[in-house]
Amino acid sequence: MSSDGGTDGRATDGRVDRRDVLKAAGVAGVAGLSGCLSDIGGGGGGGTLTYGLLNPISGSYSSLGPFQRHGAELAIQHLNESDDFEYEIEIARGDTETGASTATQAASQLVEQDGANYIMGAISSSVGLALNSFAAENEVIYNPGAAAIPITGASCNEYVFRSETNTAQIAEGAAVWTLENLGSDVWFHIADYAYGQSVLREWRSRMEDADAEFNEVGVSRADLGAQNYESYISEIQNSDADVLVVGSTGGDFVRFGNQAASAGLGEDIDIMNTTASFQSLRAGLGTAGYGIYSGVRYNASLTTGWNEQFVDAYTSEYPDDGAPGNFARVGYDSVRMTAMGIQEAGTTDPTEVKDALAGLETNSVLGDNMYRECDQQAMNPVWVGQNVEPDEGEVADVELIEKFSGGDAIPSCESTECSL
Amino acid sequence: MVTGGTLLTQLLNGVSVGMVYVLLAAGLSIIFGVMDVINFAHGEFYALGAYLAVGIAAALGGVTGGFWIALVAAPLIVGVLGGLTERVTIRPLYGRNPLYHILLTFGLVLVIADGIEIIWGTQPKNFAPPALLSGPITIAGFQYSLYNYFVIAVGGLIALGTWLALTETRVGIIIRGGAQDRGMVRNLGIDIDRYYTLVFAFGCVLAAFAGIVLGAKQEVALGMGNAIIIPAFVVVVLGGLGSFRGAVVGGLAIGIVQTLTQTYVPALTGVIVYLLMVGILLVKPQGLFGNPEWQNQGGEEGDLLTGGGGGILDSSTRRYLAAAVVGVLALVPLGIGVVYSSYLPNSLVLNVLVWALFALSLDFVMGYAGLVSLGHVLFYGVGAYVTVMMTLYVTPVFWVGLLGGVALALAVAWFVGYLSIRVSGVYFAMITLGFAQLAYNLVTKFDVTGGSDGLYTGYDATYGFGLGEVGQVSLLGDIQLFYYVVLALVVGSYLVARQMMRAPFGSVLQAIRESEDRAEFLGYDTVAYKRRAFMVSGGLAGLAGGLATINSFGVGPSFLFWLKSGEVIVMTLLGGMGTLYGPMLGAGAFLGLKEILLTFGESTPGLLGEVLSQWQGILGLIFVVFVIYVPEGLVSLPETLQARFGAGGGGGGSEPATEPTDPEVSD
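ok -> C-alpha cells follow
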C-alpha cells in the first residue's frame, strides 16, 4: 500500500482546506502509541482515498462483523488491482463494539486520525442511525450494513448510500408470496424492537393490500434477547394458524428455532422468517433449520453480476469463512458501487461524489443496480427460498424458489419518508 | 381463551425454565451462604460448561452417547477450573468486605468471557440434543417437548441430590458448620479452607450443568453468560441469599412467572422480574426464606478500603500537581495537527473526562459513604435521555437539556435512595441493580424514548446565544469549544465535590463509612446523610450522561446497560476509592490502556495481536490483580512503593486513615 508524499496538488482547484492541512502536516499520532499509521500523511486529493471499515468485531454482533469486513477488503483489493479504477484505496479499520457511542468514537478516529472520507459498516440499526448522523455532520460518505428502514427513510441524508437490502424490500417480495403459497391464516411472532416491529408493519400492510385471502390469527411479541420462547410456541401451536411469520433474527431466532423444533412446531405449520437463510442462523440451528422458508437477500450460487468472480476470490482469500454470505456481499457491493461513483465524479471528494453516485447505473454482485436517487437505497432483487437438508454435513442449504427484480422489490419513492 | 391444555403447557414451560434457574441459583446461593462470596462470574462458568460440552461432543465425532459423555465430563472440568480459581483469586479475599468479591468476580467475568472468545471464536455453536431426546412426545393426548421433560427430571434429581448431600453427609455437615462458625470448625481440627474450594467447585459444576442443559435447548454463543447472570441474581435475591430452599422455590417461581407473563400479560415482560426483585428487597431483604440455613452469623465484614490518607506528597505539592494536570488538559487541544489528530482530544480525552465525572460521582457514595451502587448507570442514563429528549421535544438549547437531565437524575436518586438506603451492604447493591434494569427495560418500550433504536436522529443541541451547535463550534481550527465546556464542568464538579467533603457533611459521611453505629450514637441521622450523598452522586452521574450524548449523536438503551455500572466500578477501584481524584485517574488509566491495547493489537500480527485485542480480558485480569493486591488503587501505589523500596523499607507505610491534611473535624 503506497502512501503519497507530503505535498499533493488538487487537480481541480487551488483551495486548501483544513483537512488537507492536517494530512499534509503528517499526523504522527501520540508518540509510540499508534502503530498502523503508514496510511497517514499524503492522502487526500490526487490518487488516493481512505476507506474506513467500521464493523462489529466485538459485542453482540461480533459473529457477523468479520464477514462484512472481509467483503469490503476484497472489493478494495480488486479495485486497487484494476486498471479501470484510477484511484488507490487505503484501508483503516475500526470496531463499533455493536454500540452507538463506541461506534461514533471509532468513526471519529477513522476520520480524524486516519483520514478516512468513506466509511462502510455496522449491522445494528441504532449504530447505523448514529453513524448516519455522524456522516452528515462530517461530510463523509457512509455505506450502512444495517437493514432498518429509517436509515434510507426518515433518517436518510445525502451522504448515506446503502447496499444492504432493507426490510421493506424483503417484504415487498416475500409477503404476498407467502399468502399465495403457504397459507392464509397467518400468525406473526416478532422480537419487540424496531426491526421486529418493522417486519410486522411491512408484512401486514402488504398482506392486507393483496388480492389473496389474508386472515391474521394472532401476534406475539417477545422481548429482544429473550431466552425462552416456549410460551409463544405453545400459543401458536394451539391456534389455527397455518403459516408463522417470524420477525426476529440472530440469537433470538436461533433460540426460537431450536425450541420450536423441540416442540414440533414445524410439523404443524410452515415457518417463514426474514433472515433464516443467513449462514450464521443456519449454522446455529443445525437440523432444526430444515424446512424454514425465508426472504433471501443473497446466495453464493447466484449467477448474477459480479457474483461468480466475487465467490471465487472470496473463497480463495478467506478459506476459513466458507462460502460468502449476505454480510460479505454487502461489504463488497458497498465499496465497489461507491467506487463507480468516484470514478464517475473524477474526484475522491465526498461532497462531489455524492452527487455523481445518486442515480448512477452501476453493476453489483446481484446484477445491474443503482443507488436510487430519491433515497439512495440500492435497488437489490430479493428471493424467496427454503432451507433444505444438505447432501453432506448438518447445516442446511438454501434452495431459491422465486425471484423478485430490483424494480419490483423496492417500495415506491412516495412511500418512503425520505426527501432528498 | 385459556384452555386447560394451554395452561398446562405454559406451566410446564415455566417449570422447565425454572429448573435451569434452580441449578444456577443453587450454586450461587450455596457459594454465598457458605463463603460469603457473591460470584458474578457464575454466568461465565455456565457458558464455559456449554462450550466445553460442544468441544467434547465435536471431538468425539459421531460417537453415540457423545452428548451424555459431554454432560458428565464438561461439568467436572469446569468444577476443577472453578476450584483453581477459588484457590488463586478468591481465597486471598476472605475477611474482606464481601463487596470485594463482587468486584473480583466481575473482573473474572471479563477474563473468562474473553478467554472463551479466544479459544472458540465469535461464531455461535450448535449443540443439538441427542436424537433420543429431540422432538415432541404425546402422552395421553397431550403433546409436549420431550427434551423439556428431560430438563425437568434431571434438574429435579440434581437439586434433590444436592439437598441430600448437604444435609445427610458428613461433608455437608462440615460445610454447614463452617458457615456458622469458621473458627470453631478449625479448632476441631478440620481444614475448612479445603471445603470452601469444594463448595465453590461444586457451585461451578451446577452452573456448567445448567449451561449444557440449556445450551442444547437454546444456543451456545458469546454473551450467554451475561444474559443469564442477572436473572440468576434475581432468583437468589428472591429466594434468599444462602438458602437452598429459596433457590429452588425462587427459581421455579421466576420461571413460571416469566412464562405466564409472556403469555397473558405481555406488556409486563422483562420488567416483572425486576419489579419482583426490587419489591422483595424493599419488603423483606433476606428473601422469601430469610434466616437461611447457612447464613454466616458472625458477620466478619471488612471495611471498604480506600486510597485516601497518607500519600507521599504534602498538600502544597499536591495542589501544584493538580493545577499542572488541569493545565496540561487545557493545553491538549493545542497539539492537534502537530503531534496528533483531533481524534485524541475531541474524542478520546473527552470520553475520559466524561467517564472521570461518572467515576467521581460513584466515589462520592462508594468511597465516602460506603454505599456500593451496582446500578449507578441508572442516573447516567436518565441524565442522557432527558438531555436528548428535551433537546428534541422542548428546546434545542443544550444547557436547558443538561439542567433537566441533572434535575431528573437528582429526583430519581432521591426516590431510589429514599426506598433503598434503609437496606445495607449487598442488598443495597442488588436494589440499585434492580432499578437500573427496570429503567433499561422500560426505555425500550416507548416510542418517545426511541424504543430499542434510541434517539439518534435530529439531535442538534445548540449553545444558545447564537453561538451555534454543540460539538460544531470550533475556537481555532479543530480546537472545539465543547472540549473546554466539558473540562470546565468536570473540574468544577470535582471542586464542588471536594468542597462538600471538606465541609462537616463530608466528615460525617466518612464517619458513617468507618462505623455507622458509632455515628448514630453520636446523634447523626445517618440515613439522611446517606440519602443526601446519594442524591448528589446521582446528579453528577446525570451530568456525565448528558455530556456523553454529544459525541454519540444521541442516546440509546446502551446508555443504561448494566455492564457500564461494572466498568465505572472498575475504574473507581482501579484509581482508588475515597479520594475523589483517584477514580478520575482510574478512568484515564482504564480508557488509556484500552486504547493502547487496541492499537497494538491491531498492528501486531498473529496470536499475540489477537490476545492484545481482547482488551476487556486483559483489563479484567489487571483489575483482578488490583482487587487482591492493590485494593486501595493506583493512588496508593506511590506510597506502597516508597514503603517497600524507598528509604528504610522497614518503616512501613502509614495506615489508610482519613485525610490527615484536613484536621478540622467539627463537633
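Chain A has 14 helices and 13 strands.
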